[in-house]
Input
Amino acid sequence: MPTLLITGANRGIGLEMTRQAATAGHHVTAACRTPHKADELNELTANSGGRIRIIGIEVRDEESVRAAAAGVGGLDLVVCNAGTLNARGGLTDPGHTPENIAESLMTNIAGVFFTARHFAGHLEGSAAPRIAVISSQMGSSERAGTTAPIYRATKAAATNLVRSMALELADDGIAVGAYHPGWVQTDMGGAEAAITVEESAEGLLQRFAALGPATSGVFETYQGEEMPF
Output
């Protein structure tokens, strides 16, 4: 069974992917910023029969990522899921403070980069090494909008990182993909969103399983539909 690392595993899609992967018999290293506050993840771990292990990681801090990686063994799949959306309006939204912008850039872009940098080496022994990045259709230039421009920009950058990493890691046999999870009923997506977190997580895990050298660099939805970039 594959061995996975999932960042941002304490809530939303990350928590549900952890749940479904462990239920399927996979071994999951569930990474989050403050494990002692992750009540649902800790409960899930306690009932997982040893298939889930929790580690602390702050994806914005490279030293934190480096230290976390040092304590992890071989992996088949790295899922860069940790992300933040802290202002939804346009240019005049007061939520676009320098501090919030810096947090978005460091979490959604640098966090992907640091995670890939320090965990790619853990994929060396895998028969099907993969890195999956949770992006968004909001990062598609062809689907530009007036809401959450900083978030949109960070997801565009994360997808661009995927394209670059797919090329760089090709000789190592590591496939890299970017995925739109859908408009999901989470704290970020809101209660009026179109799909449940269970539907999104199930579809994403299926897409990750289909990722390979022939599809490396892909940008697609949780249902396997190609996304414009």
